[in-house]
Amino acid sequence: MTTESNHPPAGEEPLLRCGFAALAGRPNVGKSTLLNALLGQKVSIVSPKPQTTRTRINGVLNQPGMQIVFVDLPGIHAKQTRAMNRYMNRTAISSLSDVDVNLFVVEALRWTDEDQRVLDELQQAGLPILLLINKVDRAQPRERLLPYIQEVTQKAQFVEVVPISATRPTSLEKLPEIIAKYLPESPRMYPEEHVTDSPDRFMAAELIREKLMLRLQEELPYGLVVEIEGMGPSEDEPGKLVVQAVIWVERAGQKAIVIGKGGALLKEIGRQSRLDLNRHFGQKVHLELWVKVKEGWSDDENAMRKFGYET
Ligand code: GDP
Ligand code: MG
After folding, report:
1. Ligand 1 atom with minimal separation from the 23 CA
2. Which ligand is nearest to the CA of 138?
3. Domains in the chain, start-ordered, CATH in brackets?
4. Which of 31, 231, 248, 262 is the most buried (most CB within 10 A)?
């Protein structure tokens, strides 16, 4: 009888390339879009507005021979006026040294002080840094792309430089393999079907907040938080999920805007949220939405804790 030494005994899991990869970058470069594209499902909400991602979100990618836990982070930004902004920066920066490898996401043809600030933090963390140059699909004029890549490549000792487009999944096919090279060998950390750590209530609140981020203008989205007050099977309609959510705003005037003329905007946000919730939870959702005012919550650490942003 022979057993090959490098094969684990029956019943034990083989070693994989397995570890944590943080998505770091200034707001709006496409970190959350990239995470969702890699996983093939939405675990982190996306909008054209900066500061859409407020807290650390884990998404697990399983492929043959590897398990990568992507850590999506709030964008590291220069303005830190309110407690919420300080919370987002702190969450992002403290996570950078807490992973196996850092993925530094920038936007093709752009380099700002905020990009430099993130790079400084990454160099402090001292882990391997992969540079991901995102949004190459819209890099215009085209001939500036190569010089741009050459220029940013010089800014630090990157272990890899990969141009990508998070909105074009084919440009991402090689990425997991490239990242896996920088992960330790270990047994699987999560069951294979596990995609995110985020609890259902958090996902529900985020999906609703995403619709608000998409529909509301200017400053309003930054003073919003969605709290799930109740979530569970419907008593009246078997198979249906009831979600009761409160949209907290900072001022009475904001409440009127969120509700809209004759309740039209709130109704539309409710409709879009419900469709996304149906899809996410794989069952029909009955959504009840309220809008309430809590003055200055985003600069009030007690209120932030109540809403789940641990400070
Ligand atoms: P984050 O703040 O870094 O997480 O950025 P998001 O993932 O929220 O994306 C910000 C905006 O950029 C959204 O409107 C995305 O649709 C858009 N975006 C992200 N990646 C790409 C890309 O590769 N190409 C284009 N054209 N747009 C992108
Ligand atoms: Mg994000």
Report:
1. 3
2. 1
3. 16-186 (3.40.50.300), 200-306 (3.30.300.20)
4. 31
